[in-house]
Structure formats: C-alpha cells, structure tokens
Amino acid sequence: MGVEIERKFLVDKNRWQQLEKPEGTLYKQGYLLDSSEKVVRVRVAGENGYITIKGKSEGFSRKEYEYKIPVQDAEEMLAHFSGTVVEKTRVKITVAGKTWEVDEFAGANQGLLLAELELEHESEAFEHPEWLAEEVTEDERYYNVYLAKHPFSKW
Amino acid sequence: MGVEIERKFLVDKNRWQQLEKPEGTLYKQGYLLDSSEKVVRVRVAGENGYITIKGKSEGFSRKEYEYKIPVQDAEEMLAHFSGTVVEKTRVKITVAGKTWEVDEFAGANQGLLLAELELEHESEAFEHPEWLAEEVTEDERYYNVYLAKHPFSKW
C-alpha cells in the first residue's frame, strides 16, 4: 500500500520534440471501475501487466495499491472487462535527480502530452524543466479515467 | 487466468456437526465492485490476502483471475473500499478424491452452511457425501455478493 503524491503538467510540444531522450514503453490501460470513491485499473506496460486499486484523491494525495500480474491476464481483462482502452508511450526522464514520466498519448488521445512527477510529500520542492507547460494536477480532464471516456481528440 | 466451474450445495447441519473434520481457516471478504458483468473481490484468508476478478457466470462457468497480495493491503482495502464484509470459516474436506470447501458463515450470515466443489468440466461426475443437502449452484441468493447485501439472518 502507499499514498501517491503526484503533480501533473502539460508539456511544451516543440521543446519536448527537440529533446534527446530515452526510448519509451508502450502502455495500454483500461478501467474495471471508475467511481469518485475508487478506481480499479488494468495496465499493460511493455512486457508486464498490473492491476491497481486507487482511492479518492485528497489534494495531491490518494491511496494506491498496485500488483504485478501476468501480461496475458492483463490483455484478457482489457479485452473482456474494460471500456475504452487508453494507449500511450511513457518516457522516463531524470531532471535534477527526480524522475519525470512523460506520456505521449496515441489513438483517440493523440496530440496530448502530459508530464507527471511523484513526490514524497506535498510541499516537496523540485526543478521545473524547460519543456514543462502549465500545471494541471487538479484538472480532472487530464485524469486517464476521464480520457478513457472523453478522448482529447474530441475536446 | 482460468475458467471456474463450480457446484454449490446446502449442507445438512446435523450430519456436518457430527463429522470429524480438519480445522478451518477464517475468511473475510468484501467487494470493490459487484455488477452482473464483473466482480472485484478482496479477501483475507487466514494469513493471506487476495484480489480476485470474476466475469459473468455462464451456466456453471465464469472467468476468474486471482492474485495473492499482502494481507495488510487486503485488510486496508476491506476497511476503506468495500461495503459489508462477509465472514466465514472455510473447512476443506476430501471425499472420494475431490476436495470440497465448506463455508460456515458467521456474523450477519450466521447459520448458513454452504459446500462448493470445483470441477474440471461441466459434466464431470463426483460422489455426493452424505452431509450434502440440495444443490443451489444457480440460486443467486447464495452468491457471496448477494449475502454481503442481504445477509442470511434477514431472509
């Protein structure tokens, strides 16, 4: 178990594209449940599968429980049990000792670029890389659960 | 992943009580989701925790995915995320080479005794032990999801 503290930002597309960066990993994820109280997510990340249970967001924090599962199980559950599957390539990039996860969305969310940083506590300081744009941590439209139902290409 | 084929019976209380049988394990379980399409169950079984995803029942069969998780996580999820928790003691008893699971319910479902047998295929033969009473495989009132909402003591 853990409490997740996460800040989320839009990414400046031009600056991001010019950056030298590592290879990304293909993610596919869908939701068995997405209420305001709790979320049950199934994810395929490259060669691995995961199931994740998240509680309600409280400020920047939320309870989160994540378990590795066989990737074949994850694929089957996405095919049988979830609604729209969100697809993206996740690039991990370290800036001033902190690892950012930048998601380049595909499919119905093509064109969206989001950067996330996980923190130890809510007031923790961090360097803002030059490719960051505005913060959207508390904007629910950028939650993946929202993007599954209301893809970016239709905004 | 797997497809679960299960048959369920009531148990003759007098015959069951007179039987010599092994110690049972205490189970507590609750549901993060229980729709007709899919179920997400969290269970504490003795010293172990589990999360289980089940699909829709089709006859005696349903898809089932089960993962072991830290028991502390399971306890926390039952406390924070589930509705009513179903409590029971599960006794495993082997009859003619097949292992029956007999659940002695407690709490709000006190007085209910249910026996389950998992099979390889739907037409598989098995011996009926003398403590079995009527079959209730397709009676939805005996699903644990139903018992969580409508406990046996209130029937």
UniProtKB/TrEMBL annotation, chains A, B:
SUPFAM superfamilies: CYTH-like phosphatases
Domain CYTH: 2-149
InterPro entries: CYTH-like_dom_sf, CYTH_domain, NeuTTM/CthTTM-like
Active site: Y31 (proton acceptor)
Pfam families: CYTH
Name used for this protein in its record: CYTH domain-containing protein
Organism: Mucilaginibacter robiniae
